[in-house]
Amino acid sequence: MLSYILKRIGLLIPTLLGVITLVFFMISLSPGDPARVMLGERASAEQLEKLREDLGLDRPLHQQYFSYLSRIVRLDFGKSITTGRPVIEEIGQLFPATMELAFFAMLLASGLGIIIGVVSATKRNTPLDYASMIGALFGVSMPVFWLGLVLIMIFSVGLDLLPTGGRMNIRLYMETFTNFYIIDALIALFRKGDITYLGSALKHLILPAAALGTIPLAIIARTTRSSMLEVLKQDYIKTARAAGIPEGKIIFRYALKNALLPIITVIGIQFGLLLSGAILTETIFAWPGIGKWIYHSISARDYPAVQGGIIIISTVFVVINLLVDILYSVVNPRVRLS
After folding, report:
1. How many CB atoms lie within 10 A of CB 55?
2. Distance (Å, rounded) from C-alpha 214 to C-alpha 195?
3. How far apart are CA 70 and CA 319, in angstroms?
4. φ, ψ for residue 91 (rounded to 5)?
5. DSSP-H helix ranges across 233-333
6. Cα–Cα nearest to 101, from 289, 230, 243
7. Of 136, 174, 189, 190, which has the fewest Cβ atoms less than 10 A away?
8. What pLDDT, in 10s, does the model give residues 206-233?
9. pTM score over 0.85
10. Element (H or E) spanning 94, and its range?
11. How far apart are alpha carbons 164 and 124 in whole angstroms?
């Protein structure tokens, strides 16, 4: 197991290097002048030239690239053009919000998706199966931005049950330790016995998590159904039924366990995609995460912020795939021996 994990970790280095290289050259070759953005349209040629020299933009592209690599190793992504703050500080402040949103969206999608897929497979060709697959088709087809607006119109504007955006009621002040509001709210609950913060954080999380998790939910449900149907055809399932083993035990202990590999694959991929899909969701729901921050950085041509944000998201995506590979070897030991 240890050698397998080390081998998979070793493959991360060229992957991350490729991502960093691609991001750097795509951003560097894109139209726009960071110096002009920082100084404004009325800046003189001398001022622009001086700032380009300070930022290293006057050097050849390959020198800028190797200088950027040396700074990346030290987790130095430069300073934001729009705010002047170090990019790594802004990422550290905003990324917990995105991870919290993505985690709860995937928790919702995985839980409901697996349940729907299992029920649909065991009730194949019944009205429940047809309804589940039609619902999954609608879930895959609905754009996140459209679904988010519909949820706001129904549950916020129409029924006035849930807030339209943000992470916490602006009238509340909560002492933060981790920037994960659910964790910080739980800390406040245990320390002060005050559930107000937790209730507000959960209410603000429901709509964006539901909007973000709809497409993964549909994909996981369809994958679970297909995988379960394949496993339920196997001879050992028929033997277990002939031996009189309870159907529930057959489904959840034998069939679902052996159907997990493709489900784990989809969950890992979808969780990584949630981080990129969070840009639209965070913008619609005014969620102060890294997705919304990247969106505004792109609009402002804040190249250091865009580069740092994309690299962090890509790194998390690659790490999630590593964890999926390791989980493979736990679920099915034959994987690490192949």
Report:
1. 18
2. 28
3. 21
4. -65, -45
5. 235-242, 247-249, 256-258, 260-284, 290-299, 303-331
6. 289
7. 190
8. 999 999 888 899 999 999 999 999 888 8
9. no
10. helix 87-122
11. 39
